[in-house]
Design a protein that fits this description.
- Keywords: Cell junction, Cell membrane, Membrane, Tight junction, Transmembrane, Transmembrane helix.
- The protein contains 5 helices and 5 strands; from the N terminus they run H-H-E-E-E-E-H-H-E-H.
- The chain is elongated and about 70 Å long.
Length: 240
């Protein structure tokens, strides 16, 4: 597929660096994984034995819900059942409630950052838009991604620590769930959270590298022009 010279695509690619495009694409992946991690119920996976009413022997715990196959009659006819985790249940561990707030905030910040970077990329080839003005949107988006990545890391690291310590959860009596499992392990949502945080920080780093490269290149160009100018002046004085 050939792109005509002078087309909008060619003009856009000539004004946008690879680092900026990479930051944009990485940010899309970061937002997708951050939302999936936030909404998924697979933060912790508990294995339980001989618990009446639980069909599969597994309990899936997220930051918003706890789900399991419920078998009230213990006759094999089980169904998927979930209970909400909210502040009406003060016995639940703090890391769950804090993760709810931090992951939701990180998703919002990541969305805003992606919007800012998208706006900058869309307007970068318009002559009326000054580059320095548009770079502010890149920098603001990078800052939001940096903060979002830190918030996600706090959430997943805290919950990882709880899993590794085989921490108990004091569920309300109405849930009819045990407080301590036979064993537990990290679910896919925690791993997704780590990847999302890594992509958020990477996107911010790419914008930061772009900023440093532009400054360095501009400074080097100015120095070269100054040296060449002085040499030309010396040659003129010498010839006269």
């Amino acid at each position: 597929m050939w792109v005509k010279e002078g087309s909008l695509v060619v003009q856009w690619l000539s004004l946008v660096s690879g680092l900026q495009i990479s930051a944009f694409l990485v940010d899309i992946l970061a937002l997708s994984m951050c939302i999936l991690s936030t909404l998924s119920v697979n933060w912790r996976v508990w294995s339980v034995e001989n618990i009446e009413g639980i069909g599969s022997g597994n309990i899936w715990i997220g930051i918003w819900d706890v789900c399991f196959w419920k078998d009230p009659s213990n006759d094999g006819n089980s169904f998927w059942h979930c209970e909400d985790l909210n502040e009406q249940h003060p016995t639940l561990p703090k890391e769950i409630f804090i993760a709810q707030d931090l992951m939701a905030l990180a998703s919002i910040m990541n969305s805003v950052a992606l919007g800012l970077i998208s706006f900058a990329l869309y307007n970068v080839f318009k002559p009326r838009k000054h580059k320095d003005f548009l770079f502010r949107f890149f920098r603001l988006g990078a800052f939001l991604n940096l903060v979002a990545g830190i918030l996600v890391l706090i959430s997943v690291v805290w919950n990882t620590s709880a899993v590794l310590q085989n921490g108990e959860i004091d569920f309300p009596e109405t849930f009819e769930l045990p407080q301590i499992p036979s064993e537990q392990h990290m679910g896919p949502s925690i791993y997704l959270g780590y990847i999302a945080a890594g992509f958020q920080l990477l996107s911010a780093a790419l914008v930061g590298i772009e900023r440093c490269c532009i400054r360095t290149t501009t400074t080097d160009t100015s120095l070269i022009e100054t040296v060449v100018h002085h040499k030309n002046m010396d040659l003129r004085h010498g010839s006269s």
